[in-house]
Amino acid sequence: MKIVARDIPPRVVWALEQAGVHPLLARLYAARGIRAKEELDDALARLLPPDTLMGVQQAAALLADAINQDRRLLIVADYDCDGATACAVGVRGLRLLGARHVQYLVPDRVVDGYGLTAPIAQRVHERGADVLITVDNGIASIEGVARAKALGLTVLITDHHLPGPELPAADAIVNPNQPGCGFESKSIAGVGVMFYVLMALRAELRARGVFDKATQPKLEPLLPLVALGTVADVVRLDNNNRRLVAQGLKRIRAGQMQPGIQALFDAAGRKAPVATTFDFGFALGPRINAAGRLADMTLGIECLLTDDPARAADLARQLDAINRERRELEGGMREQALLLAESLFDEGEEPPPAISVFDPDFHEGVVGIVASRLKDKLHRPTFVFAASSAPGKEHELKGSGRSIPGFHLRDALDLVAKRHPGVILKFGGHAMAAGCTVAEEHFDLFEQAFAQVAQEWLDAATLTRRLETDGPLAPEYCRAELVDTLHREVWGQGFAPPTFSEEVQVLSQRLVGEARNHLSIKLLHQGQPVDAIWFGHTDPLPERALLAFRLDVNEWRGERRVQFLVEGLESPAM
Question: Residue 571: what pLDDT?
Answer without folding.
Answer: 56
